[in-house]
Design goal:
The structure holds 2 protein chains of 2 kinds. Chain A is globular and about 90 Å long. Chain A starts with 20 loop residues before the first helix and ends in a 14-residue tail after the last helix. Chain A is of the alpha/beta class. In chain A, a hairpin with a 5-residue loop joins strand 13 and strand 14. The radius of gyration of chain B is 19 Å and the shape is elongated. Chain B has a single domain, classed as Rossmann fold (3-Layer(aba) Sandwich). Classes of the chains: A alpha/beta, B alpha/beta. At the A-B interface, helix 25 of A face helix 3, helix 5 and strand 6 of B.
């Protein structure tokens, strides 16, 4: 359902363009670059869009003919991803984040300023074709909102004043990096290959975000071990997947190791799209070598020679940086053949960019996407460890998991287990944002309580905390004693703090529902429909038309989502369910007690459009009914 | 003295009358039903207006215009128990396929641009007589307009389901819903 994002240029209304020889030449070049491989369609479309600013229809037909696949196959990939445009979307395309945190930090005013200065509404392009304004889901900058992507460059901490400056600069013909007058971010963000104003905001370091990491130490150690011994060490460490689902990593590796196949793949999932999460962005910026070393260790352990780093489109500004690190790894023989002198140890990495789809963070959808298709989750079993990328056994691990593996190899499983709790060993890198003094990235041991976290980030007078992003749980002060761990409050890292003055239902729950509605792939009818129905009910409650039965129905309908195929659908009702469970008084204050039904149907409003169309004055009867 | 029969009213709003056909499809059981019920306002009796309070109201079809809404509201006022019968009443059904298309576009397609009318309406007349019902902006399921007590799914619901439900409502007995009667794939 990506094409139904309210302000996406991605719907399939192609702009008209004359197809010229020069275009054929450049598209042919792009297709050649990817070896005329239809499964590299994502890359072909991304590069085509970079070339023309959007993807014209004649180009689609041309690519289809050249790859001998049907144009419909291309169109369905094209229409799925939010950042693909099929009509001109402005010489400068602004994607302003619409996440809950962006809104808390003043997005509305920033958006209106963009509209005023650019001279067009969101979802549209200015008359001169210079600036296009669009909304997008969380872009991973929650500690420096409101933020926007402009032609792939990140602009953070926007204010109406800054927006005026930026639009003025773009209108006067300045280049994008000249418009970033605010200066560059900290750490690697200032490197010539990144040159970004993004800030890392690393507030608390632990073993993963530690200084003094030496690339290659872990690889040199594993090549002296048998692959089975590496897996045994990982199992002993008790580490579980850091993306949020918490599957035991060692078990995943073992199943993949035991699967028979001449080719296996290691995927690193750097598609962090859970609103409020941004720790993988910081790792990609500051510790990409550690991440890639972790991938190579995984390759050695399970017997895979190819690694794919799947990075969300929002982090395209890190492309050159990541490519440079891969190149450096090859030069040092940490990638390539006979790695670290080990005969027959072969491993290399390529980067796969997404194009804007939260659901691609789900491992089987991520694999589909890397194969050039719509990012729709697969039916499981078979699981990717048995049949993944191109049907081969495939490991998909989170960025942070792979980095932790490097530390486990270096320091040993026993050391790792000495941190955290019994069931949740080691540390967790948290992305903390919202109403607090020090938003940013914190590495803590599992077992911290929410109260500890709030004290650490300087949050006072807290009304609620969202643990684990929209798919997680919304808890109130009476539960702040609970601990972060796989057995209590599990999280992929997103923690959002809401102060006393926030309207949890309107500002938070409604925003989360909008997010799930926009990001559902549309495959399961449950996930396609129920969040929309829940949204209607919530709007009814917010409109003071709700009755107690509406709340009961919301809870009943939420159960239906458990029939969905993937985690997105399974958790899409969590904002509603956890807010009803933990903040029932907020609902009770808004609904009409002692009434068992309220239609909220307004006859006059409902007939207005048709009466206008035929030129007729609505004639209402005394009971509110229409003329019979 | 003879026990008073249960009074039933039915209506077809934006639907195809298929659900009413399914009511008739209870075959010879209609004879035993007639012993128990008396039909008041219904296409079966052709009674157009309520003159008494009824026990059970059965609604086929969704609400696509102002008249549908009015009829539905009259049913709610005059029936103790209201039943949505079939997909259109419950979810909007086929009529709701226009939801999502602006109503102006629908009207223009029907009277100006559609293949069967294009060129045959040179004066571009759109029906606007005050006697006509007014189209709603979208098609609404019945329970979004009035409170509905029971929902019988199906397109149409099986005759067995209708009969068993009526029997259960009239006798106060339990309704048995075998999986087959509510399974649709």
């Amino acid at each position: 359902m990506k094409s139904t994002f309210p302000e996406s240029p991605g719907d399939l209304e192609f702009g008209e363009i004359a197809f010229q020889d020069t275009m054929i030449k450049s598209v042919s070049g792009i297709i050649e670059r990817y070896g005329r491989d239809p499964s590299r369609l994502m890359d072909i479309l991304i590069d085509t869009q970079a070339e023309f600013g959007y993807i014209p229809r004649p180009v689609v037909s041309f690519i289809a003919r050249d790859l001998t696949i049907s144009a419909v196959d291309i169109e369905q990939t094209l229409s799925f991803y939010h950042f693909f445009a099929t009509r001109p979307s402005g010489r400068y395309t602004v994607y302003l984040n619409d996440s809950v945190i962006a809104n808390m930090m003043g997005r509305e005013e920033v958006a209106r300023t963009f509209e005023r200065e650019a001279g067009c509404r969101f979802g549209d392009v200015s008359a001169d074709g210079l600036i296009g304004l669009f909304s997008t889901s969380c872009i991973g900058m929650s500690d420096q909102e409101p933020a926007a992507l402009i032609n792939g460059r990140v602009f953070t901490q926007l204010t109406p004043f800054r927006v005026k400056e930026i639009v003025r600069d773009l209108k006067s013909g300045k280049r994008l990096d000249e418009a970033m007058v605010e200066g560059l971010g900290d750490g690697a963000n200032a490197l010539p290959e990144i040159r970004s104003m993004v800030r890392n905001n690393i507030r608390k370091k632990g073993p993963i975000l530690a200084d003094g990491y030496r690339p290659g130490d872990a690889l040199k150690k594993v090549v002296k071990m048998r692959p089975e011994e590496v897996i045994a060490e990982v199992k002993l460490s008790n580490i579980r997947g850091r993306g949020g689902a918490g599957f035991p990593t060692g078990m995943k590796w073992e199943i993949c190791r035991n699967a028979r196949s001449e080719q296996k793949y290691i995927f690193c999932n750097a598609d962090e799209g859970e609103p409020g999460t941004f720790k993988d962005r910081v790792i990609l910026t500051e510790y990409p070598k550690m991440l890639m070393e972790g991938m190579a260790v995984a390759g050695y352990a399970v017997g895979a020679t190819q690694g794919i780093l799947y990075v969300r489109y929002e982090y395209m500004y890190l492309r050159e940086h990541l490519e440079k690190v891969i190149e450096g790894g090859r030069k040092k023989n940490y990638l390539g053949t006979n790695i670290c002198g080990k005969e027959g140890f072969e491993f290399d990495i390529r980067i796969q960019f997404g194009a804007g789809a939260y659901v691609c963070g789900e491992e089987s959808a991520l694999i589909e996407s890397a194969e050039g298709k719509r990012g729709e989750p697969r039916d499981r079993p078979p699981f990717p460890v048995e049949s993944g990328y191109h049907g081969r056994p495939t490991i998909v691990n989170n960025v942070e998991t792979l980095c932790s593996i490097v530390k486990i190899v270096n320091n040993g499983a026993t050391w790792y287990r000495s941190m955290g709790t019994k069931e949740s060993s080691g540390t967790k890198v948290l992305s903390i944002s919202g109403d607090c003094k020090y938003p940013g990235v914190y590495e803590i041991e599992w077992g911290f309580s929410v109260n500890d976290v709030l004290e650490m980030v300087g949050a006072a007078d807290v009304q609620a905390v969202q643990v684990g992003g929209p798919s997680g749980t919304l808890i109130g002060p009476n539960e702040f004693g609970r601990t972060l761990s796989y057995t209590d409050l599990s999280t992929g890292g997103s923690i959002i703090v809401f102060g006393r003055e926030r309207d949890l239902l309107k500002d938070v729950v409604l925003n989360f529902l909008d997010f799930f509605i926009a990001e559902s792939c549309g495959s399961c009818s449950t996930c396609r429909n129920v969040p929309v129905l829940l949204r209607q009910k919530l709007l009814k409650v917010l409109d003071a038309r709700g009755v107690p039965r509406d709340i009961d129905e919301m809870l009943d309908w939420s159960k239906v989502l458990k029939a969905s195929r993937c985690g997105l659908g399974l958790t899409a009702a969590n904002p509603v369910v956890s807010s009803i469970r933990n903040f029932r008084p907020l609902y009770d204050r808004k609904i009409q007690h002692g009434k068992d039904y309220d239609s909220s149907f307004d006859m006059l409003a409902a007939v207005r459009a048709s009466c206008d169309a035929v030129g007729r004055v609505p004639t209402l009867m005394a009971d509110g009914g229409g003329a019979a | 003295m003879e026990k008073k029969k249960t009074v039933v009213a039915t209506a077809s709003l934006a639907g195809c009358f298929g659900c009413h056909m399914s009511i008739l499809d209870i075959d010879e059981r209609i004879l035993s039903l007639i012993d128990l019920v008396e039909f008041h306002r219904s296409p079966i009796t052709d009674i157009k207006h309520f003159t008494e309070y009824c026990d059970i109201g059965i609604i086929e079809g969704s609400c696509c215009n102002s008249e549908n809404v009015q009829v539905l509201r009259e049913f709610r006022r005059h029936c103790r128990v209201l039943v949505s019968l079939g997909e259109c009443a419950i979810m909007g059904g086929v009529p709701a396929m226009r939801n999502g298309i602006p109503v102006r576009e629908c009207i223009e397609e029907a009277y100006l641009n559609g293949p069967s009318v294009k060129g045959h309406n040179p004066e571009m007349v759109l029906p606007n007589d005050p006697e006509l019902p007014m189209l709603l902006d979208r098609v609404y399921p019945c329970h979004e307009i009035v409170k509905v007590d029971h929902f019988l799914p199906g397109c149409p619901p099986r005759a067995d389901l209708i009969y068993d439900t009526l029997a259960a409502l009239i006798t106060g007995g339990e309704l048995h819903l075998p999986y087959e009667t509510v399974k649709y794939d």
